[in-house]
């Protein structure tokens, strides 16, 4: 009886062991190895023994104007992207709040960007806004007599270079439906009798939004903000396909900068150190969002 009981207790560990080994091999080991790598200075193109430099990689990055310039560009990209994504997602969610004919068709159409790979979306925008042969510029030339240089470093009407504007537009196109679905999930949790009562009382829409819709949507907005902030900070594929960080360093976000440090300058020590600095920022910002947004919603 005792042996059988021990066997039953041991079985779960045996079943979990393969998954744990895979987690250790593909997640934990690379994480620990890369953390150790960030304290060394070495290059793959120079045959020399890695040199232990302790925190010099981190100190050089923190004091480098180049690093702060890339963070500033990333901040501009994240700020404009999140404002557009959340503004459009909230607008679409409110327009789809009630039942109407064709609602499911509209929702399906709005999900199309999520079904397309980000690289494919970037290629589509690269073709549409091509400065010489793109249909957008052909239309603008024939009807308005203008032909914007969409992938240049000239300033756009919103105060950012056109190349950065294109990156922001592609990111907004891809991820607005994701934010919209989270907001709609919060709206669907609103009790119908509460909505009907607000209509019977003749409340204006701004009061319905503030006192009826927003309290239910706020937790979902916080979750969407956390996910989108983390994902925007590591955006790479769309930027690299659209502009490769150019022209010059106009759209060289921090993720593209890390890639260039590792695979163009072959400075893996600095690249991994910068990756961990980004990780610290993500952890700090996530806790900040959770405290002020989720905590505020609970109160």
Annotated CATH homologous superfamily of the domain at 64-266? MetI-like
Based on CA atoms alone, the radius of gyration comes out at 25 Å
The run of helices and strands is HEEHHHHHHHHHHHH
* SSE-based structural type: mainly alpha
Total helical segments: 13
Helical content class: over 70%
Strand arrangement across the biggest beta sheet: 1-2
**Highest CATH level, the class of the domain at 64-266:** Mainly Alpha
What would CATH call the architecture of the domain at 64-266?
Orthogonal Bundle
Averaged pLDDT, please?
87
- Terminal CA distance reads 53 Å
- What is the approximate shape? globular
Low-confidence stretches: none
Q: Write down the CATH topology of the domain at 64-266.
A: MetI-like fold
What is the β-strand count?
A: 2
Strand content: under 5%
* Largest beta-sheet characterization: 2 strands, antiparallel
GO cellular component, one term: plasma membrane
InterPro entries: MetI-like (IPR000515), MetI-like_sf (IPR035906), Sugar_ABC_transporter (IPR052730)
Keywords: Membrane, Transmembrane, Transmembrane helix, Transport
Subcellular location: Cell membrane; Membrane
